[in-house]
Amino acid sequence: MNQLVNIYLVIEGFKNKDILNGLLQEDMRSLVGFTQNQDELKEKEGITDTWLVLSKQVTEQDQLTIERNWLYGLTHKQYALVLQFRVRGQLTDLNLSAGMFLQAELVFYPSAVPMRAIIKRQMSAGSMPLTGGFENWEEVLEQETITASRMPVRNDRPYIIRKLKPVKDNGQWWLQDTKKDMLPLKNSVKNIWTLLSYSAGEALDMAVVGREDQYEVVGLWHNNEYRRI
Predict the structure, then answer these.
(1) What value does the mean pLDDT of the chain take?
(2) CATH of the domain at 55
(3) How many domains is the chain built from?
(4) Of all helices (H) and strands (E), which one includes residue 81?
């Protein structure tokens, strides 16, 4: 159902793009397949920060491999999505892995809710302690509402949330925050035992990816170190 809603919003948004603001027009163009010249994008000023790679998600479609690298800027507290595409047998331009820290300048694609970015320049960096993050699910849902008001087409987004604990209720695994609010754990069969081995019944700072009321844990902080899930 969400997919159908997104398709409808994209079609109607593009048909009526002339009445949208400039950044929403850029979003509509991107969603229907128009590309942005990356050389032109790299001419723009970006955000320089120490970025933590929260997750690297890899999917395959026919002969094409798609890498989704979710990053978090520890100083600016900005999330980013760096995409890489390659055909079978081709090497990637960037070799990113979850848990990696890099000092880099990222330039974001024009958008009403900037998330996708390219790396303009980078160098390796040492680990840094976590800064920022959301305190509970209520804050996450408030941010989701703000994002939806700016860009109605919903896509997965990353969030860092403090002190989450996996709990089981009525045969379903949930992520419980410090206020005892819970949201269902997406793909719980895939990673619940790894999650429980780190948590051992205690609440941990976690990185999740998802939208609305479905989130998957992609990493957590254990003994002050980031661990991918």
Answers:
(1) 86
(2) 2.40.50
(3) 3
(4) strand 79-87
Residue 102 carries which DSSP code? E
Q: What is the pTM of this model?
A: 0.85
Q: What percent of the chain has pLDDT over 90?
A: 57
Cα-based angle 167, 147, 34 (whole degrees, multiple of 5): 120
Please indicate, yes or no, whether residues 170 and 91 belong to a single structural domain of this protein: no
Phi then psi dihedrals of residue 63, to 5 deg: -95, 5
User: How far is CA 136 from its chain centroid?
Assistant: 17
Residue 174: HSE in the Cβ half-sphere, 13 Å Cα cutoff: 14
Indicate if 115 and 144 belong to the same structural domain: no
Query: Does 110 or 29 have the greater pLDDT score?
Result: 110
Better-scored residue on pLDDT, 220 or 90: 220
Dihedrals phi, psi of 199, to nearest 5 degrees: -70, -45
Domain co-membership, 141 together with 224: yes
Rounded CA gap, 229 and 227, in Å? 6
More confident residue, 21 or 68: 68
Buried b (16+ CB within 10 A) or exposed e, 85-98: eeeeeeeeeeebeb
Residue 25 has pLDDT above 50, yes or no: yes
Cα 55 to Cα 52: distance, rounded to the nearest angstrom: 9
Q: Which residue has the tokens 């974001």?
A: 108
Separation in Å, CA 206 to CA 100, 105, 192, 228: 16, 25, 13, 10
